[in-house]
Hints:
The protein has 359 residues and is mainly α. The protein folds into 2 domains: 17-214 and 324-345, Citrate Synthase, domain 1 (Orthogonal Bundle); 217-316, CATH 1.10.230.10. Helix content is 59%, strand content 3%. It has a 3-stranded antiparallel beta sheet with strand order 1-2-3. Strand 1 (17-20) and strand 2 form a beta hairpin. Helix 10 packs across helix 18 (324-345). The longest helix is centred in the middle third of the chain and has 23 residues, at 111-133. The radius of gyration is 20 Å and the shape is globular. The two termini are 21 Å apart.
Amino acid sequence: MFQKGLKGIVAVQTSISSVEGEKGELRYRGILVSEVIEGKSFEQAAYFLWHGHYASKEELASLTERLNAYRQLSDYLMAIARTLPKETSLMDGIRTLISAYQHAEFKELAIQQQAIALTAALPVMTALLYRLNTGQEFVAPRSDLGHTANYLWMINGQVPTHAQTEALETYLNLTMEHGMNASTFASRVTISTESDLSAAIVSALGTMKGPLHGGAPSGVLELLDEIQSPEKIKPVVERKLARGEKIMGFGHRVYRTEDPRSILLREKCRQLQQDGPWLNLAVIAENEITQLLNERKPGRALHTNVEFYAAAIMRSIQMPPELFTPTFSIARIVGWTAHAIEQQQDNVIFRPQSEYIGN
């Protein structure tokens, strides 16, 4: 039976996550994502996705030590980054560096250790390329900062506030994994050929680069930029609806109720809104826009998706738009690697059929 885009076709059995669109539930390893990430750092959430249980004190210390060690990029990778043309996009540059991350020591590691190495290296590569593209000196990683805080440090050259780190870490933890999305499927297809983990991540990054997958928060940012203040919410949105424009950040292809990630990000914005006017604007805007959509499109039940509050958080921590998709990738690499490991454990190469419709 032909299904365009494989919609509704089950191609994988997984114990990593589940997405229940009708219920509005996202589960990591069978547990609601809200429970998994509550009070957890990036390192703790990543360990849970990779291993299926929470890290002990010793296991967390070991993971943190290895992540810190793999933050150091080799001289040849630094040289490649500096050789790339300035007009190279961040996603293209990152793919190049991940593809080149194939030194002898890395190849000898078990795939679980390779996953840690690539997860640690990706934020460093992203910050390096961003700083080079904007004419700034590279800011070396710090071993005394956690994964999320270190990423912000390398981008801005300033130690982030607790609120900034907490806001971004919530976003990263919520977007680590989301079922059989396009980039995750691409990574599993690649690893199913018995290729290497770096190649699987390059495939995922190439898929994530597409605007239908990894670029959505930019549209929300443009909406918030146009609104600017609470009193302009209604006229801006009514004008867009009158022109038949889509209101970015509302509606989701999978969830038929509220996106659970949006609910948790909204709560984080409410907790931190005194630390950033953009977070406050997003909370107010959601309420008014939802009311307007219910009036204009009754029965559609259009709720905010994860991109809506992701854009508000990115703006609040002064993250430039060109870093949105790379930052999404910094979170999702945990899911990509978890799926690659799972695929290896019971591998069959993906080989779907095609239906010829030519003459």
